[in-house]
Design brief:
Pfam families: CN_hydrolase (PF00795), NAD_synthase (PF02540). By secondary structure, the protein is an alpha/beta fold. The chain has two domains: 249 residues, Carbon-nitrogen hydrolase (Nitrilase/N-carbamoyl-D-aminoacid amidohydrolase), CATH 3.60.110.10; 194 residues, Rossmann fold (3-Layer(aba) Sandwich), CATH 3.40.50. Helices cover 37% and strands 21% of the residues. Strands 1, 2, 3, 4, 5, 6, 15 and 16 form an eight-stranded mixed beta sheet that branches. A six-stranded mixed beta sheet has the order 7-8-9-10-13-14. Strands 19-18-17-20-21-22 form a six-stranded parallel beta sheet, with helices on both faces. Helix 2 links the parallel strand 3 and strand 4. Helix 6 packs across helix 7, helix 6 packs across helix 13 and helix 15 crosses helix 17. The longest helix is centred in the C-terminal third of the chain and has 22 residues.
């Protein structure tokens, strides 16, 4: 606990303060359960770390994002009951929690400080974000007031998430005398996000000559993954403490306060590779989606290709081999290599593995369709039927045994519609939905570096859907090394077709890719959700009308 004022060598009064960053995974909507998690965490922080203060993430009582649950009539009653429970919990440490709080008929995204059985401070978020995956202005009013309170003799300011990314709140807290700014967050992961956070905090701390504690949520919520990675910077802009990404924990930080609130530095964490970072996000996203939605197991099609091989590895790492069922559903175009590789993958990872031929099912369908199809030439209809038969088998296993179907499509395929509606798109969750094909290859090599589980020839051979003789993806698409660059510019960075051509890409490739993206919006709207890892995934980030006459070009 904090010590009484003492004199250092210069006669300046000093205090010591222990603040615990509660980087935790909360379940959206489970307000009583989340409240108990907070109480249990504070008690543990008191016992194990002698905490003065325990800081929790943004909207921890509701989980994030609660979306239209915030519009439910009983919200205020449930939050008030939770706050009463926290005040009556007989906690010796103070705590900072996030909750929706109503004032004057308006709802605010708030940070509250509970200390000694009382709510001693409430701060209302000043900048509710309304971009990318955020639509907080649908629910929350904007606060206007600065909050700086005396915490065990230390002037501490409060802000919430986006406030730190905007000009004003941090500067106001510093001007009001804060020597430490506590910023509570529900900041979702995307590639490069942690580096951007660090640059932001370094600049804000140095500019305001004020320490900053940044406490972030961890866990998966539908398509979002919150990666934790909580941070503490000192008043000179130096990184003092970094919590691990993608894991829960209580992380204590010691502060010494005289003229500045100086955190005691901890050894830096090793820098993860990009592939490790993404892979851990995918594993966490799958684990939380399956577990939080109460599925006992998952079932998936294993084709012998790289997408399903990587998805299988992610599923096993997320859930354990005993909760994963892989099914190979061969047809006359399925190569012996694919059969061998799928079996090897399943055996290496120790999952249940079944082989169900779709040949008799296909023949039965074609016999039924013989009359209406008479006089027509085989085309993608017959190819899509193969995929749809596989989807029916997987969904039947899902219904019978309560397993979630994992689909295996990657971002490149979904972008250009290289997938079959009600076929390989049938399922509940897609781990690779926001992973470009070129990154799929990199992740496969990364996973094999941990422990070999994907045969090398699965990674190195040309990708194929195997829906027709000698079929290869690049027969109908530009090479993925080119396609993914075009898609990045068009989907994630909003370049026009002409602007992409100006970057040096072949006009025919660009126009074809852009057209395929545009006309396949209807497919993506019906696709399962999946883990978001880029700054703009196919989900809440990108909301284009299905029916539109916008002409690609400028």
């Amino acid at each position: 606990m904090s010590q009484q004022p003492a004199a250092d060598g210069s006669g300046q009064a000093t205090r010591k303060l222990t603040i615990v960053m509660a980087q935790m995974d909360f379940l959206v909507g489970d307000i009583p359960g989340n409240t108990q998690l907070v109480i249990d965490a504070v008690r543990k922080a008191e016992q194990e770390h002698n905490a003065d203060l325990v800081v929790f993430p943004e909207l921890c009582l509701t989980g994030y994002p609660p979306e239209d649950l915030l519009l439910r009539p009983s919200l205020d009653l449930r939050i008030n009951e939770a706050l009463d429970a926290l005040r009556q919990a007989d906690l010796s440490a103070a705590c900072v929690i996030g909750a929706p709080v109503r004032h004057g008929g308006l709802l605010y995204n708030s940070a509250l400080v509970i200390d000694g059985g009382e709510t001693v401070a409430t701060y209302c978020k000043q900048f509710p974000p309304n971009y990318q995956v955020f639509d907080e202005k649908r629910y929350f009013a904007a606060g206007t007031d600065t909050c700086v309170l005396d915490l065990r003799g230390v002037p501490v300011g409060l802000t919430v998430c986006e406030d730190l990314w905007s000009d004003g709140p941090a500067e106001q807290a510093a001007a009001a005398g804060a020597r430490l700014l506590i910023n509570i967050n529900a900041s979702p992961y995307d590639i490069g996000k942690q580096a951007r956070r660090k640059a932001l905090l370094e600049g804000k701390a140095r500019k305001n000559t004020m320490g900053i504690m940044y406490v972030n949520l961890v866990g998966g919520q539908d398509e979002l993954v919150f990666d934790g990675g909580s941070l503490v910077y000192d008043h000179s802009g130096e990184l003092a403490v970094e919590a691990p990404q993608f894991g829960e924990g209580l992380y204590p930080v010691e502060f010494v306060y005289d003229r500045h609130c100086q955190p005691v530095s901890q050894p830096p964490l090793p820098e993860p590779s990009l592939e490790e970072n993404i892979y851990r996000a995918l594993v966490l996203g799958v684990r939380d989606y399956v577990n939080k939605n109460g599925f006992r197991s998952v079932v998936m099609g294993l084709s012998g290709g790289i997408d399903s091989a990587l998805t299988l590895a992610i599923a096993v790492d997320a859930l354990g081999a005993d909760r994963v069922h892989a099914v190979m559903m061969p047809f006359r175009y399925t190569s012996s290599m694919s059969l061998e590789d799928a079996e090897a993958e399943a055996e290496t990872l120790g999952v249940r593995y079944d082989v169900f031929s779709i040949e008799p099912l296909y023949d039965a369908f074609m016999a039924t369709l013989a009359a209406p199809f008479e006089g027509t030439t085989p085309d993608t209809t017959e190819e899509n039927l193969q995929a749809r038969l596989r989807g029916v088998l997987l969904m039947s296993l899902s219904n019978k045994f309560g397993s979630l179907v994992l689909t295996t499509g990657n971002k490149s395929e979904l972008a250009v519609g290289y997938s079959t509606l009600y076929g390989d798109m049938a399922g509940g969750f897609d781990a690779l939905k926001d992973v470009p094909k070129t990154m799929v290859f990199r992740l496969a090599w990364y996973r094999n570096s941990i422990g070999p589980c994907i045969p090398e020839r699965v990674i190195t051979r040309p990708p194929s859907a195997e829906l027709a003789p000698d079929q290869k993806d690049e027969d109908s698409l530009p090479g993925y090394d080119v396609l993914d660059q075009i898609l990045n510019l068009y989907v994630e960075r909003d370049f026009s077709a002409e602007a992409i051509v100006a970057e040096g890409f072949d006009r025919a490739d660009v126009e074809r890719a852009v057209r395929l993206v545009d006309i396949n919006e209807y497919k993506r709207r019906q696709a399962p959700i999946g883990v978001r890892i880029t700054e703009r995934g196919f989900g809440k980030d990108r909301r284009y009308p299905i029916t539109n006459a916008w002409k690609p070009g400028l």
